[in-house]
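Researcher: Quick sanity check before group meeting.
Model: Go ahead. Protein one:
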Amino acid sequence: MIEYNNRIANLKVFEVLCYSLCIHILVEEALAINATKAVLLDLFKDEQFWLLEGKERDKRARRLAIARSMEVLTKRIITTITKRLYHLRGDRALIVLV
């Protein structure tokens, strides 16, 4: 239980950093909040993250926040394109993603 509480307390430091990166990339608050939650959960479970110190920990959190944001952005773009293609072609839409 002590380790759990320590991790939560330490993650609060990274919450603002991760959210600021996510909101900068995603622009939409709801998307940024969801991406930030995912990042914090990933960091919580990442044993390697807890072995790092200082700037290395910051770097890992930043990379993960950017990666999660790009993941959300990619899904958003694919969903938008899919909807538009379906709208243009109706039920005969053929989508090939490479």
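Researcher: Fine. The other one?
Model: Protein two, sequence then structure:
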Amino acid sequence: MKYIVLIICMLSYSVAITKGDVYKAYKNKNYKQACIDAAKIYLYNKKDETLLSVFANSCLKVDNINRMAFPAMLLVRSPAARSNSIYFLTILYQKKLLYKSLIDGYDVSKFKFPTTNYILSKIFVMYADKMYTKSGSTYIFKDNKNKNISYKLNISNTKGVYKMILRTFKNGIIIKTRIYW
């Protein structure tokens, strides 16, 4: 019996994720894996603000912004960490307000946030400033820096769960779809 327990412990240790694995995935631009792996180990490393920032940024890069909330809340120990926290939470808050506005008709025009370069943040600002056209239930936005880029935003309801669907177009051809809830 002792040997079975020992073997199980050795096997679980051999597949354990380390901070090094997260950093390697991030460095190799495998952001999805870095986000997944960091989510598994961040509770054991709550004071490691580098790991927490890599965790949140990896999740942001793969549009898994709900997952940024946990590491962002723990980024409190240094000025850089607090700045990172504000950046991540600004994007998350903009997403939540946009979601509420699209579903419940909540007026977001009164909100002003720090500017970020994340696409949903840009969409939030254009939406709040009413810089869109509407076709049915779809909001159409033009990129203010690249005339060949446009975005379409709409809500989908699947089994009672509303989702925001953001599609990016280049010269009229869809190049990326993001789904948020």
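Researcher: One line on it for the slide.
Model: The chain has a mean pLDDT of 91.
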